[in-house]
Q: What sequence folds into this?
């Protein structure tokens, strides 16, 4: 059994589903692409995974970003909000609250076996701000219950703008920042190899296999008891298009890969099972809710209070996101938060 997640006391209860911040408050710079609008999708059946005709339900939307999802033991969902410097929480009834504040640009979340909330902290490297003036190092860190930096450099160089992370039973952390890396319990960081264009990273339920996105390809590594990774190989290729972003795993060891068209599913042996199309381009996914039988995804873009697509002025990055949920046949892995 997992230990219950420990997070800071809820300090603010926000308005319900549909919370929005004016686009004028979102910092940006020229050249950012804007999310497109939502699309109508039909969910096909995938045996043991999802029933045909399943419906994505909007659980949250806002202009303040959302990423790095992780489920908790009480059925809630935590998500990272980099620019507002907070971790937010959705309970099983989609009620929103702030779980952790002053998070130094949190971009992705994980929970270890001790119930600690870990994060990839992007500090002031947001490309929509002034990253050239950023002097605070990014880091892999513990946010709760006590804040601790686990790793902030590789071969004496800053880590750079971090993407995603997953915690190994040894206490070490696998993470991505362009490539893929491992930080052991002493904070020593090692690379998993060259020529990896990584974003999402995930361990199999038995933690003997590590998965890493590499564009449209998914890489796999063998993992030893101490977290050492070896035997790099190709696990599978996205067949519905797009590049892999976030990863999730279910109790049967199936791998879920977010991409532009939706969530692409592979069985544990690498066979491609199919696409679960999403209303918006999917960037992050996690199982949560009662029995972990709900799949949550973050989609790019959102609508405003007027029901129209949320847009920003030319040259200003659109950070709007929408979190959707879908009732599944499959259940998330209960032995680890992520």
A:
């Amino acid at each position: 059994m997992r230990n219950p997640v420990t997070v800071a006391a809820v300090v603010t209860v926000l308005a319900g589903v549909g919370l929005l911040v004016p686009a004028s408050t979102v910092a940006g710079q020229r050249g950012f692409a804007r999310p497109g609008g939502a699309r109508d999708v039909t969910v096909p059946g995938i045996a043991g995974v999802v029933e045909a005709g399943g419906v994505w339900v909007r659980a949250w939307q806002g202009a303040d970003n959302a990423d790095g999802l992780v489920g908790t033991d009480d059925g809630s969902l935590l998500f990272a909000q980099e620019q507002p410097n907070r971790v937010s929480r959705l309970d099983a009834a989609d009620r929103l609250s702030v779980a952790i504040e002053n998070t130094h640009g949190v971009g992705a979340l994980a929970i270890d076996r001790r119930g600690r909330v870990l994060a990839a902290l992007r500090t002031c490297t947001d490309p929509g701000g002034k990253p050239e003036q950023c002097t605070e190092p990014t880091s892999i860190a513990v946010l709760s219950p006590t804040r601790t930096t686990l790793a902030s450099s590789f071969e004496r160089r800053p880590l750079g703008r971090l993407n995603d992370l997953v915690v190994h039973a040894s206490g070490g952390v696998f993470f991505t920042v362009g490539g893929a890396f491992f930080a052991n319990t002493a904070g020593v960081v090692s690379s998993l190899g060259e020529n990896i264009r990584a974003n999402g990273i995930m361990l199999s339920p038995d933690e003997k296999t590590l998965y890493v996105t590499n564009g449209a390809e998914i890489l796999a590594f063998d993992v030893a008891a101490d977290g050492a990774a070896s035997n790099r190989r190709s696990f599978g290729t996205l067949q519905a298009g797009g590049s892999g972003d976030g990863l999730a795993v279910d109790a049967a060891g199936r791998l879920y890969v977010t991409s532009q068209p939706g969530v692409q599913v592979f069985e544990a042996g690498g066979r491609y099972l199919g696409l679960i199309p999403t209303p918006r381009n999917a960037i992050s996914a996690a199982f949560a809710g009662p029995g972990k039988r709900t799949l949550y995804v973050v989609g790019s873009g959102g609508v405003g209070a007027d029901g129209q697509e949320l847009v920003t002025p030319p040259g200003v990055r659109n950070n709007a996101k929408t979190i959707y949920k879908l009732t599944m046949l499959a259940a998330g892995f209960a032995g680890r938060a992520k």
Observations:
- The first strand starts at residue 12 and ends at 13.
- The CA atoms of residues 164 and 307 lie 32 Å apart.
- Residues 1-30 have pLDDT under 50 and may be disordered.
